Amino acid sequence: MYNVDEISLRVLNGDGASWIKKSCEDNNIYFQLDPFHIAQAITKNVKDKTQRKQLLKLFRKGEPDKGLEILKQMLIEANNDEKEFKKLSDLYNYLSKNKEGLIPYKQRANIEIPSAPEGIEYRQMGTMESSIFSTLAKRMKGRRMSWSVEGADNLAKILCEQKNKRLSETVDKIYKNIIPESVLRDVIINTPLSAKKVDAGNNKPDIYPLKTASIPYSSAAVTLGRKVIRNLCGLKDFGDLSYT
């Protein structure tokens, strides 16, 4: 429960979408371009690792003008490389379009941050976006997947429990009085494969059984005529007849 009348400072941390910034203007909220999205855009579009680190450092320190100036120089140097020039142009346009949100809110002279209550620590913004990307979006938005609201909500809960290393404990609590313990033991024993190995299919080699049959005449009755034939041919038994 929040007492909204006591809120003295509002900072909206977003990815730069126009509707997000418009909501800040209408409600007297400070806009900050999400640090995770800044880092993601730089990492994606800047090939040189040294330049990438330099840009990341400048934007973290709240020096966007220097960062944008370096990007201009990089654009000039990449003028003959169409692919690299396009990436750097996209990055420059994205950052310059959201220039008012590039300085971290804690470093802005026009923002007075109230002291944190005892036992409370103000953390950096961007943690939520990073968690959503690595835990949810990356796993749920790829490969043309689509979800119902209920299905997405349920899977999000599973992924969060897995990330917090509580999935096994949570599953045990839910199904403790529903599934018999003997069945759970069978499931654990009979499904040792990881999800990755299951997707890979059965790696066992194909087996081609040999067709076998008994030796000809080995089970035939020994008549007087057959005894004569065996003696004439010098055979020990009728099993050898098949090899003559």
Kindly describe this structure.
The chain is mainly alpha-helical and 244 residues long. It has 11 helices and 2 strands, in the order E-H-E-H-H-H-H-H-H-H-H-H-H. It has a two-stranded parallel ribbon with strand order 1-2. Helix 2 (35-45) runs antiparallel to helix 3 (49-60), helix 2 (35-45) runs antiparallel to helix 5 (82-97) and helix 4 (64-77) packs antiparallel against helix 5.
Low-confidence blocks of residues: 240-244
By secondary-structure content and strand pairing, the structural class works out as mainly alpha
Global mean pLDDT: 78
| Major beta-sheet overview | 2 strands, parallel
Distance between the termini: 98 Å
Strand order of the largest sheet: 1-2
Binned, the helix content reads 40-55%
Question: What is this structure's SSE topology?
Answer:
Layout: E1 11-14, H1 18-26, E2 30-33, H2 35-45, H3 49-60, H4 64-77, H5 82-97, H6 127-140, H7 149-163, H8 167-175, H9 181-190, H10 195-200, H11 224-233
Parallel strand pairs: 1-2
Helix pairs in contact: 2-3, 2-5, 3-4, 4-5
Describe the structure concisely for a colleague.
Helices cover 52% and strands 3% of the residues.
Summarize this structure as a short list of keywords or feature phrases:
disordered C terminus; mainly alpha; 244 residues
